[in-house]
Write a structure and sequence with these properties.
This protein is of the alpha/beta class. It is built from 13 helices and 11 strands.
Length: about 325
């Protein structure tokens, strides 16, 4: 197995100084300098030669090289041309890395088609291929990258990423918690979520002002298949949680006033066995899926199937955040 340069704080400072560069705060460039944590994240991704890995935020290639040692192919994207040039030097000995110097996002709701086209091409070239997102994600793109990957038709299987702690809490949050949001439901309705580590600012250079987390998300195809119309459901969640403290009857009447009368909303809630005075933020993931499906079917004039009429305590079981949320002195010694 090829050796890789362990990009410590001292190494990175020297490397950037030689090239007359500084980390760019506007691009969220906070390099993960604890090599044990890099190896931990890569190990948790469970990579082998079947895997096509998407990395967002190449930086100087510190994680990229570790990924390339394990995966079939790594497609790494960075918007900063200077970082891409440095990463090119770091991965020069690997023939299974594609570096892309551009924005990963076409817009806030869509991944760049140039990147997704390359991902699809590589997936067809590798037998029994699997797509995984493994990255030290820049804070500024953490939410749109992960949410849009879930929304895409790409056959992703797992994500193991470092993200802002607040975002990790939101993704793993349970109903009735202050951190429970449309993103919580969107992710958990189609995947299981576990927070693997809480990371202090000292494991990054430059140090961010907030804590971070390593989060693991893995796809559950059967759960995703229960959603009747995923684009509709995503819009439903965003609008529902924009009025999270209002009663669901009031929210639905407002959201779909052009498609459904108040009487139709009342009839739908009664048919689906929902209390009209319940607040959206108190509904579990499975209940929101059932409600979203019910609204979608009613608007399209499709009869509700029998299972939609029964309250769903836990049709979609979710993986709650792991209790293992603080990194030991040597995370490599705690790979549970």
């Amino acid at each position: 197995m090829k050796d890789v340069q362990r990009q410590t704080r001292t190494h990175l400072m020297s490397l950037l100084r030689r090239h007359g560069l500084n980390p760019r705060g506007d691009l969220g460039q906070n390099f993960l300098i604890d090599v044990n944590l890099i190896e931990f994240a890569v190990r948790k991704a469970d990579l082998d030669s079947r895997d096509v890995v998407l990395e967002v935020g190449t930086g100087t290639g510190g994680m990229t090289c570790f990924l390339a040692r394990q995966a079939g192919h790594v497609i790494s994207v960075d918007i900063d041309k200077n970082m891409s040039a440095l990463a090119q030097e770091a991965v020069a000995d690997f023939d299974n890395v594609t570096l892309i110097n551009q924005d990963i996002l076409k817009n806030k709701n869509t991944l760049a088609p140039e990147v997704t086209d390359i991902l699809r091409q590589k997936l067809t070239e590798i037998p029994d291929s699997r797509l995984k997102l493994v990255a030290n994600l820049p804070y500024s793109v953490g939410t749109p990258v992960m949410s849009n990957l879930v929304a895409s038709d790409l056959p992703w299987e797992r994500m193991v990423c470092t993200i802002q702690w607040e975002l990790a809490e939101k993704m793993a949050s349970e109903h009735a918690c202050s951190t429970y949001a449309s993103l919580s439901v969107w992710i958990q309705s189609q995947a299981s979520v576990r927070i693997l580590r809480r990371l202090g600012p000292n494991v990054f250079w430059p140090r961010p002002k907030v804590d971070s987390a390593i989060i693991s998300i893995w796809r559950r195809e059967a759960a995703a298949a229960r959603i009747v119309d995923r684009p509709f459901f995503l819009d439903f969640l965003r609008r529902m949680f924009s009025q999270r403290r209002k009663h669901i009857r009031s929210v639905l009447c407002s959201m779909y006033r052009k498609q459904l009368s108040k009487a139709e909303v009342d009839a739908l809630l009664a048919e689906l066995n929902f209390n009209p005075e319940t607040r959206g933020e108190l509904l579990e993931v499975a209940e929101l899926v059932r409600l979203g499906n019910g609204v979608s079917r009613r608007i399209q004039g499709i009869p509700q199937p029998p299972e939609a009429l029964i309250p769903t305590g836990s049709i979609l079981p979710t993986e709650s955040a792991s209790s293992e949320v603080s990194a030991p002195a040597n995370p490599a010694d705690a790979d549970s």
